[in-house]
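Hi Q.,

Before the meeting this afternoon, I wanted you to have the protoporphyrin IX containing FE prediction in hand. No need to reply - just skim if you have a minute. The sequence and ligand are here:
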Amino acid sequence: MAYLWTKLFHVLFVIAWMATVFYLPRFLVNLAEVGDQPAVRDRLALMGKRLYRFGHVMFGIAFALGLALWFHFGIVGPWLHAKLTVVLLVLAHFIITGRWLKRAAAGGKLPSPTTLRWFNEIPLLLAIAILWLVYFKPF
Ligand code: HEM
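Predicted structure with the ligand bound:
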């Protein structure tokens, strides 16, 4: 019972974090296309910064609950280590997005909108890998 509640909230906070991971690069695309409109740029940068902070909190809780599933409820296997490796890649993507947001907020240059659109697709592939590992537990 406690295991299922822990898992339910783990998935809930994972959803909230992944929503951030999927949406934050959209701010970068908009920032890269904003041109000479400082007021719009500042507003997008502020919204991005707040969403980035929110994402950190959601990740922190999802992570803590994931650790509880692992160490308290003893759900573990090679699939979990593989999953955590992919989670690290998602986290790296998230942090790179945050750095680019800060750079854009300071008026720095961003990669092209096309590059950013491709960058935006990476977490989708990583999320499929994570879900495959969790549900198929292939090893
Ligand atoms: C941050 C560190 C994380 C740890 C330590 C962790 C660990 C775990 C563990 C031990 C389970 C239990 C699996 C089971 O009962 O079969 C689980 C479930 C799950 N995890 Fe994570 N997880 C983490 C992050 C994530 C992330 C980032 C995602 C998705 C992007 C994710 C998606 C899921 C899903 C969907 C389930 C539920 C599987 C089911 O319905 O049975 N987890 N996690």
